[in-house]
Design goal:
CATH topology of the largest domain: Dihydrodipicolinate Reductase, domain 2
Helix content: 25-40%
Number of domains: 2
Distance between the termini: 35 Å
CATH architecture of the largest domain: 2-Layer Sandwich
Number of helices: 12
CATH superfamily of the largest domain: Dihydrodipicolinate Reductase, domain 2
Structural class: alpha/beta
Strand order of the largest sheet: 14-13-12-11-7-10-9-8-15
Shape: globular
Radius of gyration: 20 Å
Bound molecules: nicotinamide-adenine-dinucleotide
CATH class of the largest domain: Alpha Beta
Order of helices and strands: EHEHEHEHEHEHEHHHEEEEEEEHHEH
Strand content: 25-35%
């Protein structure tokens, strides 16, 4: 029987998960929910939802028969949605980042643990086959250095992106992908030192016409546009993370991992590595992105495990927040243990 899904937040990224669900027999798009009714209705129509459209998640959960929900709300709009699902024993998939504060993430984590619902966080790079292979290659070797970057050639034109308290800043909102992947490849992080800067003049010049897609100017831009972290892994490995959204010409995210007897380069979902066997290049298939949702719905259907549960999202969020906390403390190192919820 197909897993019955409700979608919460039907903006940008929801389309990717709805497209995945629409083409599969083992998922049914039952209902949609967005605070903007038009968006919920449009998604329901476009992807053929069998049930209703809602502006209130509680109403959706209480009116429809759902096995799970897929939460694609902005970083600030978390907490009540997850808790409402937990209270009703409804499993949830949630897009990263799981929150913009450790306090909220800890609150939801407690609800998840108390309810026992199945959860999965949308860190989709972990499910790319070439990256899984890279992780296997690295798992038997001492890792020295994890060098990660996330460069976006401008600002997504969404109001919440420009405010720390809404989007969390680039470290929380976006570079979290790389910080999470660093944990997947090299284990947990012990401490973080962070430094941030705003390099670009984001004010809107007279006559500026916003392009489609990423923008180079925005009123109310309040987040750092350039950030550097130094990470100390529990294993003793060192790491760096550089990210910037200063307008330039190329989207580029990835890694270099230096380990005993191997160098692994990750470019998006693809991997090149050099070890005793020589140079190898592994490309992810076009639909690699679907695997993170498929694994979740399989787990809900009793077929296997969701391998990126909510607590993984909390641990990865903590690295970003430790980076910003270090900036507040004048670039002093912040131990992850200081800010992690109890028991993680
Ligand atoms: N995994 C990835 O690669 C990836 C890519 C893009 C975005 N994301 C993440 O997905 C999340 C959403 O990003 P987006 O680009 O789709 O944002 P978006 O602003 O395009 O869409 C979010 C939608 O949620 C709705 N919404 C807000 N509060 C709500 C609430 N309380 N209940 C119901 N709906 C609500 C908004 O009206 C909007 O339609 C972000 O956390 C982002 O980081 C992940």
């Amino acid at each position: 029987m197909a897993v019955r899904l409700g979608f919460v937040g039907t903006g940008g990224i929801a389309n990717r998960h709805l497209t995945c669900a629409q083409k599969r027999d083992d998922m049914e798009i039952v209902a949609t929910c967005d605070v903007v009714m038009n968006l919920a209705q449009q998604a329901a129509e476009k992807y053929g939802a069998s049930g209703g459209s809602y502006t209130d998640v509680v109403q959706m959960l209480d009116s429809e028969e759902l096995d799970a929900i897929v939460i694609c709300t902005p970083p600030f709009a978390h907490g009540d949605i997850e808790e409402a699902a937990c209270e009703r024993g409804i499993h949830f998939f949630v897009e990263k980042p799981v929150a913009v504060s450790m306090e909220l993430a800890g609150r939801v984590l407690k609800a998840v643990r108390d309810s026992g619902v199945i959860t999965q966080v949308g860190y989709m790079f972990r499910k790319s086959e070439p990256i899984i292979k890279a992780q296997q290659i690295l798992s038997t070797r001492a890792i020295a250095m994890v060098q990660a970057h996330y460069y976006m050639p401008g600002l997504p034109n969404k109001g919440w992106w420009t405010k720390m308290e809404l989007g969390g800043g680039q470290l929380v909102e976006q570079a979290t992908h790389m910080l999470d992947l660093g944990r997947f490849l090299a284990g947990d992080v012990k401490s973080v030192i962070g430094k941030t800067s705003t390099v670009h003049d984001w004010s809107v010049p007279e006559g500026y016409e916003e392009p489609k897609g990423l923008v180079a100017h925005k009123e109310g831009f309040e987040i750092p546009d350039t950030t550097a972290l130094i990470l100390e892994y529990e294993s003793g490995a060192m790491g760096t993370l550089s990210c910037s959204l200063v307008p330039q010409v190329k989207w580029d995210n990835g890694f270099k991992v230096i380990a005993e007897g191997a160098m692994v380069t990750i470019d998006g979902p693809n991997v090149n590595y050099t070890n005793e066997d020589g140079d190898v290049s592994e490309q992810a298939p076009a639909d690699w992105y679907d695997a993170v949702l498929v694994e979740f719905t399989d787990a809900v259907a009793g077929k296997g495990e969701a391998t990126i549960p909510y607590e993984e999202g909390v641990k990865s969020l903590a690295i970003s927040l430790a980076g910003y906390e270090s900036v507040k403390r004048g670039n002093a190192p912040v131990e992850l243990a200081e800010i992690m919820p109890a028991g993680l």
